[in-house]
Amino acid sequence: MTARSAVWHPFTQHGLDPPATAIVSGEGACLETADGKRIVDAISSWWVITHGHRHPAIVAAVRQQLDKLDQVIFAGFTHEPAERLAKKLIARAPAGLAHVFYSDSGSTSVEVALKMALGFWRNIGEPRTGVAALEHGYHGDTIGTMSAGSRGVFNDAYAPLLFDVVRIPFPYAGLEQATFDALDAAGRTGNLAAFIAEPLIAGAGGMLIYSAAALAGMKRICERHGALFIADEVMTGWGRTGTFFACEQAGIAPDILCTAKGLTGGSLPLAATLASARIFEAHVSTDRARTLFHSSSFTANPVCCAAALANLEVWDSEPVLERIEKLAEMQEAALHALSDPRFENPRRLGSITAVDLKVADQGYLATVGLRLRAHALSKGVLLRPLGNTIYVLPPYCITENELERVYDAIRSAPGAVA
Ligand code: PLP
Questions:
Q1: What confidence tens digit (pLDDT) does each residue in 43-65 have?
Q2: How close is the Cα of 385 to the center of ligand 1, in Å?
Q3: To test the ligand 1 pocket, which listed residue (46, 261, 364, 391) has its Cβ within 8 A of the most ligand atoms?
C-alpha cells in the first residue's frame, strides 16, 4: 500500500478517488503537471480563472502590493486598494448597490448576505426571519449556505445543524408560474426576509438555465412583498453568462449581490457582498447591538484587493466582452457538433456549455462522473462533470485548438465510459 498524502482534499473521497494530480505551473488556459504534461483547464480551476492563469498585469500588481503592505486588520483600519476597489465595484454593479463588505470566499459572501438581510429587518424593528431559496441552488459549504442550498448527499450528515428555508421550484421553461406562485405564497406570510437565487443558471445544481424574464418576475414578487432579493453571482459574475453580471440581462438591481471567484481574475481568494444604502443605513446606529457582526482575519487583504483592481483594469483596457462573445460562438458551434445520440439537453449560457450523457446511473454520485473525469484527464483535459452532466466553463483566453482538445475528449467520452 502506498503512503497516503497528509493532505485532506475538498470534495474528495480518499477511499475511491485516484491520487491527486500534482500541478507545478499554469499559463493561459493550461496547467502543467509535475511530469511535464499540459492540461487544458476547461473548468477554469473551479470557475475562478477568467482571463487565464497568471495574467501578467495581475501578477505584476500582486508583486507590487506585496512590496508595500501585505496584510492589515480591517476593523478600525483601511487601505487604498480596498477603498478604490469598493468604488470600482459599485460603478460596475447594478444600480442601487452602495456599500461593499469584503470577505474571502463565495461561501462567506453569501453568509454575510444572509446576516445583512436578517440584521436589516431586526434593526428596522420588523424582525422578519424567513429565507426562501431556489430549488437546485448551491451557495457554498458553510452551515448557512448549505441551509440555503439544495439538500442531498453533500449535506445529509450535517442536516441537524441546518435551518429550514422555503424551497421555491426551479423556473424551468414553461413552468415559471409554479415558481412565481410559490414565491408569492412565501411573501404573503409577511415573514420573508430574503430570497436568494443564482441568476439565470444554477451552477453546481447541474448547469440548469432559466430565462431572464423568470429572474425579473421573481424580483418583482420580492418587491411586492418587501422581501430582499439576494443575487448570488459568485459563479455568474465576471462575464461568464455573457454580461458582466447576470442580473444585467434581466434589467434587475438586487438588494444584495455576492461576488467572489472571478473577482481577482481567479488569482487570489477575495469575495465581496454589495448592499443597498438602506441595508447599510439600517446597521448605522449609536447602538452597538446593531453592528453587522461579521469578520474574518483576512478581510480585504491588500494583496487580494490589488489583484482585483488589476483584474478590473484588464476589464477596462482589454476587449474582454468581445473575447467572451467569440468564445460563446466557438462553444455554440462545438456543442452543436456533438452528434452522438447518447448526449442530450445541450445548452449554453454565455461562455458556459453543458450536455448530459444518457446513462442509467444519474445524479452527482454516479460513478460515470469519475470515469468521465479520468477519461478527460487521459486526453489532457481538466473536466469535472456534475454526475452525468458534462460542462465546459473555460478561461476566456482559451484558443480554438485548446477548445478542440476539450471537445475531442467529450466526443470520445460515450464510447469510453458509457
Ligand atoms: N455560490 C455559488 C453560486 C457557487 O457556485 C459557489 C461555488 O461554486 C459558492 C457560492 C461558494 O463559493 P466558494 O467555493 O468560494 O466558497
A1: 999 999 999 999 999 999 999 99
A2: 16
A3: 261
One of 3.40.50.300, 3.30.720.10, 3.40.47.10, 3.90.1150.10 is the CATH number of 320-359+369-393, namely 3.90.1150.10
* Residue position matching grid coordinates 448576505: 113
Residue of 263, 113, 290, 84 whose CA lies nearest to 198:
113
CA-based nearest residue to 323, from 29, 9, 105: 29
Show the DSSP H helices in 238-382 as ranges.
277-281, 302-317, 320-336, 367-378
**Closest atom of ligand 1 to CA, residue 107:** 16
Write out the residue limits of the CATH 3.40.640.10 domain(s) in the chain: 59-317
Q: The cell 447576470 sits on which residue?
A: 246
Per residue in 201-224, pLDDT (tens digit) is 999 999 999 999 999 999 999 999
Name every protein residue with a CB atom under 6 angstroms from any ligand 1 atom. Answer: 47, 105-107, 110, 138-140, 198, 203-204, 232, 234-235, 260
Residue 44 contacts residue 417 (beta carbons within 8 Å): no
| pLDDT value at 112 more than 70 | yes
For the stretch 260-299, pLDDT in tens is 999 999 999 999 999 999 999 999 999 999 999 999 999 9
Which architecture does CATH list for 59-317?
Answer: 3-Layer(aba) Sandwich (3.40)
Q: How far is CA 65 from CA 51, 100, 269, 306, 387, in A?
A: 20, 21, 15, 6, 41
Residues of the chain within CATH 3.90.1150.10 domain(s) are 320-359+369-393
Q: Which atom of ligand 1 is nearest to the CA of 269?
A: 15
Segment 149-174 shows an average pLDDT of 97
DSSP letter, residue 250: G
Question: How confident is the model over 321-339, as a mean pLDDT?
Answer: 98
Distance between Cα 193 and ligand 1 center (Å): 22
Query: For a pocket test of ligand 1, which of 43, 154, 234, 256 has the largest count of ligand atoms closer than 8 A to its C-beta?
Result: 234
pTM of the model: 0.97
Determine contact, residues 254/234, Cβ cutoff 8 Å: no
Ligand 1 atom nearest to 110, measured from its CA: 10
Alpha-carbon span 22 to 13, nearest angstrom: 17
